[in-house]
Description:
Layout: E1 2-8, E2 17-20, E3 33-34, E4 44-45, E5 47-52, H1 58-74, E6 100-112, E7 115-127, E8 132-140, E9 146-154, E10 159-164, H2 172-177, H3 185-191, H4 198-206, E11 208-211, H5 219-227, H6 229-241, E12 248-253, H7 267-280, E13 283-290, E14 296-300, H8 306-324, E15 327-330, H9 339-349, E16 359-363, E17 380-385, E18 391-395, H10 409-414, H11 432-441
Parallel strand pairs: 5-16, 5-17, 11-15, 15-16
Antiparallel strand pairs: 1-2, 1-6, 3-4, 6-7, 7-8, 8-9, 9-10, 12-13, 13-14, 17-18
Helix pairs in contact: 5-6, 5-8, 6-8
Amino acid sequence: MLVEFSVENFKSIKEVQVLSMVKAIGNKMPDNYFDSRALSVPELLKTAVIYGANASGKSNILKAMFQMKSILKNSFNKELDENIPITPFLFSPLSKLEPTTFNISFVMNLPDEEEYKPTLVEYGFSADRKQVYEEWLSVYPKGREQGWFHRLYDNESKEYTWSESSFFKGQKNTWKNNTRSDQLFLSTAVHLNSKQLKPIYDVLMDNIIIISEDRIGDKLTKEFCKNDERDKKLILSLMQSSDIDVDDIVFEKTKINSIKFPKDMPLEIQKELSKRIHEEHVDEVFFIHTDEEGNDVKIILHDESDGTQKMFEFSSLIFSSLRNGGLLIIDEFNKSLHPDLVRFLVKLFNSEQNSGNGQLIFTTHETSILRRDLLRRDQIWFCEKGKEKSTNLFSLSKFTSRDDGREDIEEYYLHGRYGAKPIISDLIFHDSKQKILEEVDK
Length: 442
């Protein structure tokens, strides 16, 4: 469960930008937020949407979280001469020389007096392409901070100063000695068998799913359906609830045409290879429809509409989030999906059906999401670039509610009252108009 994410000096982001899932003041739309049951953690929101003009940096907020995960995942196995994949803000001479900082706080179950309890965890680091300058991890099992570890690079001594909590156990000196200046201590400790840190690492790796592609393939959903017939019925129900005309979903191996092997290949090897190819040949997905005479019509998935394919591909991630919790982040969620379908999925997260309190964060240009019956003001975020060409992220809740909260947010946004819209000017062709006229005269 995400509480807050912040990033500084990354791509179009210069100053610290914070995306918070903490509920602001007001108890409207109670289905849209929940109690994490972690001490000292306010109620959290189930969904958030980010709007902004093209090139405003809204995708960079999500990319920053993805990059934080990627750096952590690959840190232990990083080659010595390999750069840390970080791109600072490039429109400032000072920023290009400064490290990038990521920080994330979230709620997860951690053991406390032999019982697992929802606990606030905070992790972050500062680094440039060559080294890590600072890294920290704190947990709050009693609502008070336990700083498990903190490393800070001293430019004068060219060494790290370390502070640790007695609550943090294990071969700490071994892990420190095996962490290079261009590596993250959390990654090293986990790979060297820190059982205490591994659950935290696993949550960051497995419970935060970030999708930046329009299409992700059908492999995940196929496995989801084939593991349990009840799960397949859930997927089918979601498709039908989304007004997709399908009566059943089946999986079949398509026929493989005769395989041609080199003439000089031994027959036994040909038979073995042919057997493996047939065994490993993946199932294809077929949707079963009913024609006007009541007969079944089987259509392979890749012949269905783009929106239907996308819904099928994303459906397993949606149900995993709703059932098990975790964070699902999708860039440009509206691509290939009808606006009503996007609203339907957002409503699904903001409902009692979201039993695991999964969270959905997405970017979009589709403004029907802004209609007042769907989201609270604190669930709506905007991105825009300032005079320094840097990204500013802000919530609608920073604006005083007009008309006692009855304003038409969609209409106000389209008319630029909240900012975060492109400023389009007249297109000037300079000399081209004269040149075109000259060509016509000829």
